[in-house]
Write the structure tokens for this entry.
Amino acid sequence: MAIYEKILVPIDLGEYSEDLIERALEVADSPASVHLAFVHQRMDSVYVGAGVIGSALAEVGGMEDRLQQDLRQRLAGWAEPYGIPPENAHFLNGKPSEQIQDFAMDNDVDLIVIATHSRKGLQRLLGSTAHSVLQGAPCDVLSVRAD
């Protein structure tokens, strides 16, 4: 039996996603114990204060729907080649660090495998999302260098 039975891998659907998934699979009992998560911050939540109203808001909503559909397909495309079940590919909406922490807590995650990027100060070591997740995670966190 593996030490970690449920592993969460937050991915950005970019070039480092492969490294994260492969690292999680190295410590996983099986691909079925790995859960991918993509966190999307909706455009309408970002631009609400910018004075968007009326038909412009409806247009943003339509673009948002198309964008989410595309992102969901891309997320599923990352799970399938690794044998990760489709139900383990989670599309979340909101602030990334909060959604990752909440998902881990609500789903009894044992390990979060997250990318780290070069930034400034302490964030230079971890990255802002990774740093926030590390500070509030209810479980172990494995940071994988993405540089």
